Automatic annotation (TrEMBL):
One of its GO terms (molecular function) is structural constituent of nuclear pore. This is Nucleoporin Nup133/Nup155-like N-terminal domain-containing protein. Residues 946-964 have a biased composition (Low complexity). Residues 14-80 form the Nucleoporin Nup133/Nup155-like N-terminal domain. Gene3D superfamilies: YVTN repeat-like/Quinoprotein amine dehydrogenase (2.130.10.10). Keywords: Nucleus, Transport.
Length: 1404
């Protein structure tokens, strides 16, 4: 499976102690891995940890202590030699160089070591001090030997120069127990051999460079020249072989048994900067050491004239270093296409001017040498520059004993790039697999540690984005080395593949495939990483197409469980964090790389399986068993395996601890500490707020549940101590302790699982808080149901023997609820307010679902407890007991808070609506009982105080003071009423809050009268209400409550800040119920225009409701509903006088408010009311609509035509008034409405004409003229006619065409023609000189008038003209008001007296 490390064959987690050491910030560690023997090791300080890596995190650790700790700046070399019964005495071993990065390779022709064979360990420090354990399985004292001695005066120099340059060891078969052979290269170039066995340590110097090389003379120099000339001519390859070893110190040693040598012949390869030296070593009876050859492999690269280097322009790599990608072959194949693609451009030719060896790998007869070459040229014409390229040179150890350079393979590392080094030099390691013709290249870069302030300020920029290395490997001077590259190189194609940029890689090794024997079968790389553990990778050759491939995901194949690895990593981090926190240190360096490590293990991905990794770890941390305490949460995840693990051994033995007895208090305290450290480490590393909301919810809930369990345990301990002190099993303390123990046992029993079966139910409850808290809440609900059922069965009446115990039970259940909820809420507030900023409300809003504390199960249990308390409450009585009121309040407070939180978190509309309905029903039911108890308590207190005052024998002064305290002081703060007020306000119980404030105001009028107003001004609408009455504010509720209770004065007397709200409320009410109150409120608030409009609208509404009047011929009055009649009576106070007063006030308010339109409308309505009064309609009726009033007037005027003689004369007065009123009603109508009644316009004028005997009028007019009377007498005769009065009534309107903005003679001409025709026709009709309703036809008008007709025409036209002139002369609204009445002398006084003189103020 392709993964972050290529094809993963196996992955094994590190033991906990090793992982903790690797997580230490700034730690100086060395590590190594021996694939063929299966061992891995870690050197930390003076402690050397050895384990079989395939046993994983449960591996048994062997801890060896060095007698003298190595210097941090000069790490020692470590070699592990595994012994077994291999054929031929072959040996397998591994070693690390003095630079401290362990690299192991397979020994040639070596069989795997026996599984339980001896294991020799050799540690050689930089001063040449050798420490040896011949068998590390037996913890015996090590053997020591000083191999090198510093030169005179060197010990005093600072800094000290390491004496050891390289170290290697191999197994030695002496037949008398474990033994090994070691080689050592000193910094002065000398070479030493050490034989170690049961007989002791025997060092021997192989070679030492001469102190001062001899200078040849003239003859010697000439001979040398001749010899080199001969060699170049006849044996060119001999110039690269020397007979003397290199005088330089070795960069790397390889010591291995020669195949077929019987276990006594060894080959020692020494790599220096310029050459590869080969020594033949024999042990046994005739030991010997001889140099076979010294091969100048670097000179071969430099002098090969057939090859030119391909140089690409320098490119800045991702790490900031310069790299050149090039390709070529030692066989002269030139530049390959793969290298051109890697370089990203055309390559230019250059010349190699020098080469230096960096590292080498030996596998059987194959030797791979990692070199760096200096290339000059290639920069274009006239440009000279030097670049570096990395090369792997393949050598072969020929059977005849000499070295050979392999041809036909690529040697330049195409695509390999190195970062620029800020300080120090990188450490490189090379592994080679002949089976796949591939190499593994690793490089560690030295980095200087930052100061503490810099670490805090630059925590996000450490290590160029890699994070601070938490297990540093090698280095000196306090610096650490970070793995920067892990590359795979194909020797056949030259392509390189970047396998990993994991900075936690600590060591690499090469091993053979499982079941294979011999180094030639090496087919796997083994990588030791602080993040992934030990990972075995197939040594597959890279292909050119894979060179640019990016790394994939984490190594999830071949046994590596990323979730388990992440849990193991978090265990190690928390253990280290606990130690650092206890010492008062800074956690930032420890957690700086945690986000990268967890991300590499897939714990921060978005997939469902990986997202829950940290959530599962948090739950495992909560549910740790005491026996798993030493193993951390990762051990809890595999409890069964931990119980079956091997017994611990050694001083540093790991694995699952047998455990010691841990008290519940200690267990819970440690869980709280570790979980708090988990949250702190996640927050400081930047992981916490990058987690999914579901994971954050689990972290929060686990912390809250842990706090609940801790609080319940403390309560249980306290109850047990109290019960023991009481000394009786029947005491209340003993009953409370028994109740809590029973609930804890029930919850623990329900929380049990297979791994918890060995514990008692109570122990399970405290050992598994993640599950037990929910079961505890459910058990509490069941206990409440039991109490309610028992009370309902006959023990709920006052005086029953069991009632006291039931009340005590529900009180104790309420105490448990208070303790648990208070602990959870306090922890929730702590997480939200701490630097973690972990808000449960925000997480719930993101998820759209309530949390455990406000979930359905918790609400159901609390609801059952509230019902149980209500069931056992005493029945109402004159002196009720209030013993359960506070318990009910506490449970109700928690229950309603849970409902509010759930409502705020729920987004689904259907669930939200159901939840809101349940919330409102619950708060109403519980608040009713709480309010009743609170008011009863206040009454009981007042009754007791009153009785005390009545029976007091104190002085008058004292009695008066007591009465003042009783009636004028606020209730004591400990009363339930104050708590109920807070509860009602928090949960929008508007009706109950109103009652509370009323009761407080009644008890203390001076101090509490404004309490309701304060709540009205500050209480916001209920969140989540979907509309309707339930969504109103408290102020809106109070408005409706005062109006509904018949308290309009209190409504209008609310403070000024509520005026706008009262106005809006009254406007929303039906006009029949609130129009007068609204008008009064508006007038009181100086909103005159609005008040006038409301008054006018109320009269109009009354007219519309009762418009049929008493004479409605269509039955409208009979059809009028009772509601409309009530509205009419409420609006007009049951009389026209009331309407007049309202309209007069409306006109006055409109004039004061500057509303001319409203004023004109009120004036119009007043004139219509005046007409209705003149018609003699019932005074107790409602105002009539203009159309109805017109019909009534026409009906009354019709009596003129039907009557005759004396009857007509008797009926002429009211009929005349009706006719004039009909014309005036039509004149007051709007033009459009008047047009709709056009036929009635002619009828009205005809009734006006018929109202007078025109022959008599003409005679009286003539008599007045002949008698020489004043002109006023003639005018008085005409003014008394209905025609004159009707024409005058049209003044101020456009009915006759001469209104304020209308000049049109057509309407007046039409009326004049009608009157003329009717006057002419009156001669033919006889009688009273009127022509009847049918007169006035065109034929009659065209007939020449006789003398009588002419007199009638003159009288009619005179009356019409007099009326029109009078109306025009008066002008304006004030002149028109009652103009018709003024013409008849005495009618004006009636209109002027409307509204008890109020109209006089308007009319002036």
């Amino acid at each position: 499976m392709a993964s972050f490390f290529g094809d993963t064959l196996g992955a094994y987690m590190l033991p906990r102690a090793v992982l903790e050491l690797l997580q230490q910030p700034g730690g100086q560690h060395q590590a190594g891995v021996c694939p063929d023997s299966g061992f891995a090791w870690l050197l930390s300080g003076s402690q050397l940890y050895i384990w079989r890596y395939r046993e994983g995190k449960e591996a048994r650790l062997r801890v060896l202590t060095l007698p003298r700790p190595p210097a941090p700046s000069q790490p020692p070399s470590v070699a592990l030699i595994a012994h077994g019964s291999a054929a031929g005495g072959a040996a397998a071993g591994s070693s690390s160089s003095g630079l401290g990065l362990g690299v192991a390779g397979p020994a040639p022709a070596a069989a795997p070591a026996a599984a339980d064979g001896p294991l020799s360990v050799a540690v050689c420090d930089a001063d040449g001090h050798l420490t040896v354990w011949l068998d590390a399985h037996h913890l015996a004292a090590p053997a020591e030997q000083q191999l090198l001695a510093p030169a005179a005066g060197a010990a005093a120099r600072q800094p000290r120069v390491p004496l050891v340059a390289a170290f290697a060891a191999a197994r030695l078969d002496l037949g008398s127990g474990p033994a090994f052979l070691a080689a050592l290269s000193a910094s002065d170039g000398s070479l030493h051999l050490v034989q170690v066995g049961s007989q002791g340590i025997f060092p021997k110097q192989l070679w030492a460079p001469p102190a001062a090389p001899e200078r040849p003379g003239l003859v010697g120099a000439l001979g040398g020249l001749l010899s080199r000339a001969y060699t170049d001519a006849f044996d060119p390859s001999a110039r690269y072989l020397r007979k003397q070893p290199s005088p330089r110190p070795a960069a790397r040693l390889h010591l291995g048994a020669v195949a077929g040598g019987g276990g006594s012949h060894y080959r020692l390869l020494v790599l220096t900067a310029e050459s590869v030296d080969c020594w033949a070593i024999s042990t046994g009876l005739r030991p010997s050491e001889a140099l076979q050859w010294s091969f100048l492999n670097g000179l071969v690269r430099t002098h090969d004239s057939r090859r030119t280097a391909a140089v690409a322009p320098l490119q800045l790599t991702a790490g900031g270093g310069a790299a050149a990608a090039s390709g070529g072959s030692s066989g002269g194949t030139g530049t390959g296409a793969g290298s051109q693609a890697a370089a990203g451009g055309a390559l230019q030719s250059g010349t190699v001017t020098g080469a230096a060896n960096l590292d080498f790998a030996v596998s059987g007869p194959h030797v791979a040498v990692w070199m760096v070459e200096t290339v000059r040229g290639g920069g274009g014409p006239g440009v000279a520059r030097e670049t570096q390229q990395h090369v792997v040179q393949m050598l072969e150890l020929l059977p005849e004993g000499g070295p050979g350079v392999c041809g036909g393979v690529h040697d330049v590392l195409e695509g390999y790039a190195e970062h620029a080094e800020a300080s120090g030099s990188p450490v490189r390691r090379l592994l080679f697999s002949p089976a796949s013709h591939s190499c593994l290249l690793a490089r560690w870069q030295q980095s200087q540690p930052q100061s503490q302030p810099q670490q805090q300020q630059q925590q996000q920029q450490l290590d160029s984005g890699y994070g601070l290395l938490q297990g540093t490997f090698g280095g000196g001077g306090g610096a650490s080395r970070t793995c920067r590259a892990l590359w795979s190189w194909n020797a056949l194609s030259g392509a390189t593949t970047l396998l990993s940029e994991d900075p936690d890689t600590a060591a690499i090794g090469a091993g053979g495939a499982d079941g294979a024997v011999g180094g030639d079968a090496a087919g796997r790389w083994v990588v030791l990483s602080a993040t992934y553990g030990v990972v075995e990778i197939a040594a597959a050759a890279a292909t050119p197409g894979e060179a640019a491939a990016a790394p994939a995901a984490a190594p999830a194949a071949a046994g590596l469980d990323p979730a388990a690895a992440a849990s193991h990593l978090l265990d190690a981090v928390l253990n280290q964090a606990a130690a650092i926190a206890a010492a008062g240190g800074n956690l930032q360096p420890l957690v700086a790389g945690l986000e990268r490590r967890l991300g590499a293990l897939g714990a921060l991905t978005t997939t469902a399986s990986q997202t829950a990794t940290i959530a599962r770890y948090s739950t495992q941390l909560l549910d740790l068993l005491p026996k798993q305490w030493a193993g951390g949460a990762a051990a809890a995840a595999a409890a069964a395996a931990a119980a079956a693990a091997a017994a611990p051994g050694g001083a540093g033995g790991g694995g699952a601890s047998g455990g010691v007895a841990v008290s519940v208090a200690e267990q819970l305290a440690d869980k709280e500490s570790r979980h708090a450290l988990l949250l702190q480490c996640l927050a400081m590393s930047g992981v916490l707020h990058a987690l999914a909301p579901s994971v954050l919810r689990t972290l929060i809930e686990n912390s809250e549940k842990l706090a609940v369990v801790v609080a319940l345990h403390r309560l249980q301990v306290h109850q047990r101590d109290t019960a023991a002190g009481a000394g009786g099993g029947g005491s209340p303390a003993a009953a409370a302790a028994a109740l809590l123990s029973r609930l804890v046992s029930e919850a623990g029993q329900e929380s049990s699982a297979r791994e918890y079966e060995v514990l008692s139910p109570a122990e399970i409850f405290y050992a598994r808080p993640s599950a037990s808290v929910g079961h505890f809440v459910a058990a509490l609900g069941r206990a409440a149901d039991g109490v309610a059922a028992q009370a309902a069965g006959g023990l709920g009446q006052p005086g029953d023997s069991g009632l006291a115990s039931l009340r005590s039970a529900v009180r104790e259940l309420g105490v448990l609820v208070a303790v648990a909820v208070n602990a959870a809420v306090c922890r929730r507030d702590l997480l939200a307010g701490s630097p973690l900023h972990l808000s449960a409300q925000q997480v719930a809003a993101r998820l759209g679902l309530p949390d455990w504390l406000s979930g359905g199960d918790t609400r159901a249990a609390l609801g059952r407890l509230a019902s149980a308390i209500q069931t056992v409450r005493p029945a109402p009585s004159p002196a009720p007991a209030l013993e359960l009121s506070h318990s009910l309040f506490g449970v109700t407070d928690v229950l309603l808070t849970c409902f509010a939180s759930a409502l705020a978190a729920t987004r689904e509309p259907g669930l939200r609506a159901a939840l809101l309905a349940d919330y409102r029903a619950t708060r109403s039911r519980c608040a009713d009982d709480l309010l009743a108890d609170a008011l009863a308590e206040m009454r009981q207190l007042a009754t007791g105080a009153g009785a005390a005052v009545a029976t007091s024998t104190s002085t008058t002064t004292t009695t008066s003071q007591q009465q003042g305290d009783l009636h004028g002081a606020a209730p004591p703060p400990e009363l339930l009423i104050w708590q109920v007020e807070s509860l009602c306000r928090a949960h929008h119980c508007h009706g109950h809050l109103f009652e509370v404030c009323e009761a407080l105001a009644a008890a203390d009028p001076a101090g509490q009268c404004g309490r309701l107003h304060t709540h009205m001004a500050t209480l916001q609408p209920e969140e989540g209400a979907a509309g309707g009455a339930e969504s109103q504010t408290l102020a809106g509720y109070v408005y409706g409550r005062l109006l509904g209770d018949g308290r309009p004065a209190d409504l209008l007397d609310l403070p000024p800040q509520f005026r706008a709200g009262v106005t809006t409320f009254l406007q929303s009410q039906p006009p029949a119920a609130a129009s007068d109150l609204l008008a009064t409120h508006l007038l009181r608030t100086s909103a005159f225009a609005d008040g006038a409009a409301v008054l006018h609208q109320s009269v109009s509404a009354a007219a519309a409701a009762g418009g049929g009047g008493s004479g409605d011929k269509g039955g409208k009055g009979a059809a009028q509903s009772q509601a409309e009649q009530a509205a009419a009576e409420a609006a007009g106070a049951g009389s026209l006088g009331g309407y007049r007063r309202l309209l007069s006030v409306a006109r006055l308010a409109a004039r004061a408010g500057g509303a001319p339109q409203v004023e004109a409308a009120a004036l119009l309505q007043l004139r219509l009311l005046g007409l209705q009064a003149r018609l003699g309609l019932p005074a107790g009726g409602a105002p009539m609509q203009p159309a109805v009033l017109l019909d009534e007037a026409l009906a009354a005027a019709a009596a003129v035509s039907r009557a005759g003689g004396a009857a007509a004369s008797a009926a002429s007065a009211p009929a005349k008034e009706a006719a004039v009123a009909a014309v005036e009603v039509l004149a007051l109508m709007p033009a459009a409405e008047r047009a709709a009644h056009a036929s009635k316009w002619q009828l009205a004028w005809k009734a006006v004409f018929d109202a007078d005997a025109w022959d008599d009028v003409a005679a009286a007019r003539g008599a007045a003229a002949r008698g020489g009377g004043a002109a006023g007498e003639e005018g008085a005769v005409l003014a008394a006619t209905a025609v004159c009065r009707a024409a005058a009534a049209c003044g101020g309107t456009d009915a006759l065409g001469f209104g304020a903005s209308v000049v049109d003679s057509a309407p007046l001409d039409q009326v004049a023609r009608w009157l003329r025709a009717w006057a002419i026709g009156g001669a033919a009709g006889g009688g009273n000189g009127n022509g009847g309703r049918g007169g006035g036809s065109p034929a009659v008008a065209a007939r020449p008038p006789d003398a009588a007709a002419e007199r009638r025409v003159e009288a009619v036209m005179g009356a019409l003209g007099l009326g029109v002139d009078g109306a025009r002369a008066r002008g304006g609204d004030a002149a028109v008001v009652g103009a018709g009445s003024a013409l008849v002398g005495g009618g004006g006084s009636e209109v002027a007296g409307v509204a008890g003189g109020a109209l006089d103020m308007i009319v002036d």
